[in-house]
Amino acid sequence: MIDTIIHSEQWLAYAFAFLMGLSMLIYGLLDGYDLGVGILSYYAKDKKESDQMVSSIGPFWDANETWLVLGVGILLVAFPKAHGIILSNLYIPVFIMLIGLIFRGVAFDFMSKSDNRHKKDWYYAFFAGSLTTALAQGFMLGSYIIGFEIDTLNSKLFIFTVSISLAVGYCLIGANWLIMKTTGDLQKKAIQWSKLSLIGAIICIALVSIGTPISNLTIFNKWFVLPNFYYLSLIPLLTIFFVLWMYLLLNKLPYSDDRYCWLPFVLTIIIAILCFVGLVYSFFPFIIPNEMLIVQASAANSSLMIIFVGALIVLPILLGYTFFVYKVFHGKTTDLRYD
Amino acid sequence: MDVLELSRLQFAANITFHFLFPSITIALGWFLFFFKLRFNSTKNVKWMDIYFFWTKVFALCFALGVVTGITMSFQFGTNWPGFMNTVGNVAGPLLGYEVLTAFFLEASFLGVMLFGYRRVKPWVHTLATFLVAFGTTLSAFWILVLNSWMQTPQGIIMIEGEAVVTSWFEIIFNPSMPYRLIHTLLASVLTASFLIIGLSAYRVLKNGHTKILRSTMKAVIIVAAIVTPTQIFIGDLHGLNSFKHQPQKVAAMEGHWETKKGAPLVLFGIPDQKQKKNHLSLEIPKLGSYILTHDFNGEVKGLDQFENEHPPVGKVFYSFRIMVLFGLLMLALSWLGVYYIIRKQEFPKYYLKMLFFMTFSGWIPTTAGWYVTEIGRQPYLVQGILKTADAVSSVPSAHVSITLTIYLIVYAILFYAFISTIFYMARGATDKLSNKLKEIDLGDRRSAAVKISS
């Protein structure tokens, strides 16, 4: 299979599919943790605690959200035919997500700047916007997996499950971000949140992993065929291993010198990547499950080449300064201040 | 209303609301850079007061710009699939380069600029400020290249209903690009200038004069006094450029119904699209021809040359006059300010009040100008290549009505919150910070900051 890809003229389409998948994954991880923190902010005990939570993501959220623009941008530019179908099928959930993103994004700034009468509303908007965004994205992911055939009861249940799963996943990575970035009471709380989310995530991953091959016969055949099944079982086995590791670790945290406070966050990233790989394997080489192949949706090659060359030059620089920003704001969160 | 009208209204609402904020941030970033450089060279911490106050405004505008901008990027697919299907080979790379070269740059260094003052070396902070300003401008560049190309397309051939690129150089340097780019950037300078002057005037009116507010106002009034006439001049060149490439747009702007030698300049009137004439019009004979052709008897194409292919006249005609009116108002106000500066007089109260009323005045001509250029391109989405009606999606119009209604409600809430927060911030702004900073040795801010926080 790989052979045919390299020797065909279509490698560019696959390269863009890779880039798009990568941006979506990075988006899910990065905006995932800040949306998760947003959802969890509902459980902060007072203003000080929610301010601490908001501060931990303050310098990052803008750039995190840009990965969504890049992912959708690549879909728009490289796969215009799929873009039209996907987005017109998802007209209402996309809209709901955008409203969520709008409130979540502006709440960051309004909560610290607006007058006291309205401050509370913006804290609430921050939570509600984050939750709405997460659920809408889960809805979109679920509809996408089943190829937008959302009429039957089963598919509705499936979409609902994926929707909740994504929100729970965001809570998990958000809680683990807080474990890494905070200390004291809030950190202890975050560990509890993380445990609860982890249990939720285990149930969700299991449900989605079972539901996906059942709802889609092609996927079933891709996974449950010998000998592929032996290699593929590595993905769920590794997932189970890392999940167990995280669970045991969470029971021991926090260590007195705050050793390993970063580890749950890293483990979440690994688990997310494993889930993502499983998802990609299920669909490849389709860009819209069962309907449209990556190569069918691809735009004219000459224009794509221009972007591809640009992307190759710009992406390393981009990753470089993203790394720089994370280094600047490395370590435990302090109060965010301009001066 | 059908799905076309609803989608157009929704796009107009989204982009109008979106552009309010970039029209501030594009130039405000450079003003911030200027304030930072003033601080670096004078070591007067009062400049940092000004800097920090305006970074807060910048942060707020930037956030609003980002979230409303994301909405735009989805609209292409949800409401206008025909756009990418027809000219995706041109629009795709331009939008792609915007995201890759500009969006990430500004969004990443924004964090350092806003919250990194105590965490990075002073020069890195100055550099971050520069990169944010540079990123926003670069982003404006790519978008304006694309928009200009939609007005004056070239460098492509159409094959089976799809634009195929023949020359990127011709696409990027299309005939209207330099004019539209400069005209828009200067519009942003004026919008940000009047925002800074107006809000500073408000602070003076509320809390009394301070030296630093006066220095800020002086510097920015001088900028406005120079940029306003420059903008009028560039606008005129831009108009001549449109006259050459999109004469139907200029005919609608000027209210010229018939092709004429020695066409008048219509100062005001009420265009009537049914009767194809202007009511109650106030005209200066032959001046229209002179402005457009530099000859009192030059021939000016009228709307009669573009039967059914010309834009709705009224909207373009009125928008154009609103833009010009505000340009003249800004000219008068900024020059009056320079008069007081030269005479070394305090700004009198009535003048401060006028500036206060003009705080957000930049938005009006900027928006009106965009209406001229965008409505003036109708019925085309890409001039001569793709009609707007052929690009719209088949989403049920009920869906679009719902989303449009909610967008309008959300935008109304955000608009109210934005304006009231800006004035709230201005009322609360004080010089406390610089008093606090004074105690810290300027040369070693970083380690001092660490000491204070630990």
Structural description of this entry:
The complex is a heterodimer of chains A (339) and B (454). Chain A has 339 residues and is mostly helical. Chain A has helices spanning 2-7, 11-40, 47-57, 61-78, 80-89, 91-113, 116-145, 153-181, 184-215, 217-223, 228-232, 234-252, 263-283, 294-297, 301-328, and strands spanning 286-288, 292-293. In chain A, a hairpin with a 3-residue loop joins strand 1 (286-288) and strand 2. The relative contact order of chain A is 0.13. The model of chain A has no long low-confidence stretch (mean pLDDT 85). With 454 residues, chain B is mostly helical. Helices cover 71% and strands 7% of the residues of chain B. In chain B, strand 4 and strand 5 (277-284) form a beta hairpin. The model of chain B is unreliable at 433-454 (pLDDT under 50). The chains are: A mainly alpha (339), B mainly alpha (454). Chains A and B meet through helix 4, helix 5, helix 6 and helix 15 of A and helix 3, helix 4, strand 2 and helix 14 of B.
Provide a compact summary of the structure.
The complex is a heterodimer of chains A (339) and B (454). In chain A, 81% of the residues lie in helices and 1% in strands.
Mean pLDDT of chain A: 85
Order of helices and strands of chain A: HHHHHHHHHHHHHEEHH
Strand content of chain B: 5-15%
Largest interface: A-B, 65 and 71 residues
- Please give the order of strands in the largest beta sheet of chain B: 1-2
Largest sheet of chain A: 2 strands, antiparallel
Mean pLDDT of chain B: 86
Tell me the series of helices and strands of chain B, N- to C-terminal: HHHHHEEHHHHEEEHEHHHEEHHH
Radius of gyration of chain B, rounded? 24 Å
Tell me the distance between the termini of chain B: 63 Å
